[in-house]
Amino acid sequence: MNEQKAIFITGGGSGIGQATAKLFAAKGWRVGLADVNAKGLTETAAMLPAGMATTYTMDVRDRDAWVANLDAFTATTGGRLDVLFNNAGIGTGGPLIEMSFDDLDRVVAINLVGVLNGAKIGYAYLSTTPGSCLLNTASASAIYGSSGLSVYSATKFGVRSLSEALDGEWYGAGVKVRDLVPSFIDTPLLATPAGNSNYSIKQVVTNAGLELTGVDAVAQAAWDAVHGDKVHTYVGKTADRMAFAARWMPGRLRKMMRRGIAEAN
Questions:
Q1: Is 149 within 8 Å of 194 (Cβ atoms)?
Q2: Rg over CA atoms, the chain
Q3: Domain that holds residue 216
Q4: Taking burial as the number of CB atoms within 10 A of a residue's CB, which of 73, 102, 143, 172 is the most buried?
Q5: How far apart (Å, rounded) are the C-alpha atoms in residues 185 and 131?
Q6: What Å distances lie between residue 24 and 19, 39, 191, CA to CA?
Q7: Strand partners, 213
């Protein structure tokens, strides 16, 4: 098997995926970049050392595309897949009663079913590479449900629980499963309108008194998670504080979430 390690990243055209690709490539890894945004993929690939990346325009809802692109990528790595980074996601939110069913279905299909697709299909590739890891992107919304982001929170709780379950299921096969639980990340995704309202997800987050975290911190956390032993890696002050408060001060979190949606309105 080829000695050069390899990572396949969904959502690689921007944000966390882009930052993670830059870090792993700088450390000598071969990188597979997947995204629905072909322009973003080209921009990310241009940031990496020459010859280190291959790009795949792909929707994580498309199971045939998963198979075709993982086949294509592992053909360039001598069959090796050390990390599959299930990172692609969208931030459409808003109060549940204001969301359209189309938006609701799309968030669930991309943020949760897309991750399930990557896990189920990716296992065959990961299980042939000793010490491999499935890495999923959860969220601080998976610590305590975020008002104004109810469906998004539900999908990220699902990602978190999936990571715990698969860490047990795949232990015997030698495949690690980890997730990132980052604070809300300061990327264009947070500029998304929250549902049908005239306020953004970023406004909901900041009005609740929650801090934003830079993508470089998340990329470093991805590296640490892949090489560490914890299932959940919390990233940023907000995630740390929310995890502490969820355990010891749940009443305070309830008030924060109420304030966030009230002030956004």
A1: yes
A2: 18
A3: 6-264
A4: 143
A5: 29
A6: 9, 21, 27
A7: 185
- DSSP string for 45-76: HHTSPTTSEEEEE--TT-HHHHHHHHHHHHHH
What's the domain count of the chain?
1
Query: What CATH number does residue 186 fall under?
Result: 3.40.50.720
pLDDT for 81-113, tens place per residue? 999 999 999 987 678 998 999 999 999 999 999
- Identify the active-site residue in 123, 152, 171, 199: 152
The answer to whether position 1 is within a domain reads no
Residue 133 within any structural domain of the chain: yes
Q: Transcribe 7-52 into DSSP letters.
A: EEEETTTSHHHHHHHHHHHHTT-EEEEEES-HHHHHHHHHTSPTTS
For the CA atoms of 166, 115, 46, 21, the dihedral, rounded to the nearest 10 degrees, stands at -30
The pLDDT tens digits of the residues spanning 168-217 come to 999 999 999 999 998 866 655 555 555 555 555 666 666 655 667 778 99
pTM of the model: 0.87
User: Do 182 and 218 contact (CB within 8 A), yes or no?
Assistant: yes
Euclidean distance between CA atoms 236 and 210, whole angstroms: 10
Residue 123 annotated as catalytic: no
Both tokens of 232, joined, read 């959940």
- With contact defined as beta carbons under 8 Å apart, do 73 and 111 qualify? no
